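Backbone description:
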Amino acid sequence: MPAPRVPAPPGRPIGSATRGTTNPNRLRRMDRWIAAAHAPALRRAEAPIAVDLGYGAAPWTAVELLGRLRTVRPDARVVGVEIDPDRVAAARPYRREGLDFAHGGFEVPLPDGARPALIRAANVLRQYDEDEVADVWRRLCARLAPGGLLVEGTCDEIGRRHVWVALTAHGPRTVTFAARLGSLDRPSDLAERLPKALIHRNVPGEPVHTFLRDFDRAWAAAAPYAALSARQRWIRSAEALRATGWPLVDGPRRWRQGEVTVSWEALAPRP
């Protein structure tokens, strides 16, 4: 268990360093979803600044995020923020127009007090205790520009399996499950990648456990579609989930990408 955290002294970043593990294309699934689901807000943003919070020992994810956001908003900017000053120094040779790196933590320092349209925090909160998550979410959401989005989640080392929560200034909105479908035996394989707010709630009686149970049942019932492809099996499973009342907020266009997004309220932990 991590050591208890105390407020950072004035001038010091808030939070703790991650292990720093990173790989090229690790966050492609999350980026692809952001570029699609958040595109209208990015196009409307007065200052399309995105923050890659806790990008790790190498700057690949920040570099890639810039390229993917610029397919939506050509003048998008990305700032990679790291609490480890050595990682910031190592990343600075990669700076270019629209891409910079800064030393900081959950306070999200940006020049001139700018507020980002997007904060992406991937594989950052795994080391924290569950009861710390809500405070971090509030702190990060308070830094967002109007209409901004916080995306916080976890993936495996090469980005085949990923689960993330999307939040606005009003709190968590959705949970997205995404996978390279050929790597799955069943949807509940994604349980090990649940974000910190949910991973300890995957037990009987909790909504996320019920959702994954029902997803597995729908996947089993859709087994005949595996002869067509894992994608078709996934799509049929998502259709069955919706038919049984789960509030999926996306549709076949995203399901074909190996994603399913469900309303946060349906999966929120019980008090």
Q: What stands out?
A: The domain at 28-179+247-264 is CATH 3.40.50.150 (Rossmann fold).
